[in-house]
Amino acid sequence: MERLSAWVVRNRWKVMVAWLVITVIGIVVAPTVSSRLVSGVHVNGAAYTADAQIAARYGGATSDPGVLVLGLPAGETVSGPAAAAQLHAVDAAIAKAEPGMRLVSYAATGAQALVGHGGTSTVVIAYPPNANDDMSTDQIDAITRAAKAAAPALRVDGTSLRALDAGNTTGGGNSTVTGELIIGALGALVVLAWVFGSLLAALPLLMALISVLTMQLLIYALTYVMPSSSPINPSVQFIVALLGLGLSIDYSLLVVTRWREERAAGRDNAQAVHEALKRAGHSVWFSGMVASLGLFALILVPNSLVRGIGVAGLFIPSSATLVALTLLPAVLSKIGPRLDWPRRRASSGASRFWTGWAKLVIRYRVLAAVVGLGILGTLAGVAATINISLPTTSSLATSGTYTDGLHELEADGFPAGTLTTVPVYVPHADDAASVASALSSLPTLHGVVAPSGDTWRQDGSAMLFAMPDSEVGTSQGGTALADIQRTVPHGVLVGGEEALNLAVTRSSYGAFPLLCTVVALMTFLLLARGLKSIVLSAKAVLLNALSVAASYGLLVLVFQHGLGMQALWGARSYGAIDRFAPVLIFGFLFGISMDYEVFILSRVREGYERTGSTRQGILEGISHTGRLVTSAALILFFALASLSTANDITVREIAAGLAAGVLLDAVVVRMLLLPALVSLFGPLNWWMPAWGARLLRIPPDTPQPHEERAPRPQPIGDAG
């Protein structure tokens, strides 16, 4: 770090110009990144193969359909001539209003599975024209209007899973990276202004902006090198932008705070920059490496969305680290003192409040450990009830036109499973009738439709549509999908969005134990080498695992059981947790929360090495980093909380879970459990056996300071 700081200060103009060029390129490229991203999830398996075949010939038939419920006037049935004319008119009007829309209707097929109670109603199942498209709320509204205009005598209601998921609103807006980035940045600026009380508050924010633009530039480059089987998903842009904002500010905050301390201690500006990089720079580099590991390990999960996030996530901490260790010290060496104005806060890193807090925790360390572990243990117990599946329609539906459509669907005798109708690809059209007959005998299906005509007969193949009694992919989904897969003959492919979702879930959680093991082991080894302690590293990994489990518990309380859902998002409980949320939260939170661990323990170790006292090390570590860690947690919280406003349920749950987890980790784990347990362990904190030092290639542990040496081992409760 000393050589790096000397080089940066000596070449500060070159460093600043280089970053200016990168920033300008990032500004130019950033608006085009989204056009390079690919929706959907790629995963090896029968469901993905089926969807690929269906999409190639039948466009958007792999997605969950939109459903129109058509009620006939009193006294009419679908078999009557007047009804037939109106139903044909509806099909024609939809085709005109939404060219290319693919329909499965009674008017075109005569299938009894599409007829409601008493023959007085029917449904039209609609799919978007193109592959990888979903039936948007705008399309549902458009075909509903077209049907009403074509057949005014009919009662027409439209609904779909996606429409219900969107909150039963019409024409809802979409979240944007820019809007959420601005919200997160404003929240961060408030916290930074409170921390510094000077123009320095803007410096970490500027570093974060440059980091995020660099990350967007790297994502753009990744889209050209990632294989077609693992494209970068649009959700990556959200995650990189908001996490990048938080991490970049965290790292800059650490360096600037240490620089300010060194200035207050009487060093000139150049010396302060060198000392800040020597001390805080090492923590930033180490934290960035550990966080990168946690994110990059997501590539172990065998599906394209998680792997894409893992590869892109590698650049989040690394870009933030590079900016904090090069551009930031260059700027500080040039104009740092001028930015530290009007200095409404003292520059000293020691905090009277946090010193008092550390003394209180040390004094009541057993009670603090019990309380902290009790909170985490209780939440981890709640996490054991997690239901990883799609939310049921009853959980999504609250009020609005799409909910009315669902209620009319069920009132007319159609199951809610109609919204998760399963597409079946028959390679040889001549086999379609026999396959449909076999599927019709399944008790878990409401019915099977075998449409004819060019729309559903392409290249010698045919499509069938199986309407399950229960919603596939939910906790109440039953065995309908498995029954279909078991019944169809060899070569007939069962696809659809829910079949793919279940395959993705199985692939994700099949690899989850390996992901946890690799991340925990590598983190332990890195920490053991960096902290020169076996005990502290093991404690950090175990507490991190417990912290992640507690975050899952908060996720379950909010999204599965609905605690605070109405107040925060105006929605009811989903009754389930999104399939991607636990995996991604683990990857992000395990790596990111190690930042705080490294920030605190590095300072504790520094104090211990100088004073020879574990107690003094804890006091120095907490008093100098307490405000820093809580401020950093608040900044990351604001960034993630702004991301939780996204309309995408996956992004919303991940962001909310991470936001809650970051605060929980910073307050309960780092500011309560960490000092309590370090105090309880006493001299054991610094244990590094000779074999461990050789394995990790670090110098043997230094002799114990005089006050912690004793003729026999001290009790574990001795704080040193």
TrEMBL record:
It is found in: Cell membrane. It is a multi-pass membrane protein. The keyword Cell membrane applies. InterPro entries: MMPL_dom, Mycobact_MmpL. The keyword Membrane applies. It comes from the Bacteria. Keywords: Cell membrane, Membrane, Transmembrane, Transmembrane helix. Its main location: membrane. The chain crosses the membrane at residues 12-33, 181-200, 205-226, 238-257, 284-302, 314-335, 366-390, 509-528, 540-560, 580-604, 625-646, 666-687. Residues 53-359, 472-689 form the Membrane transport protein MMPL domain. This is MMPL family transporter. It comes from Streptacidiphilus cavernicola.
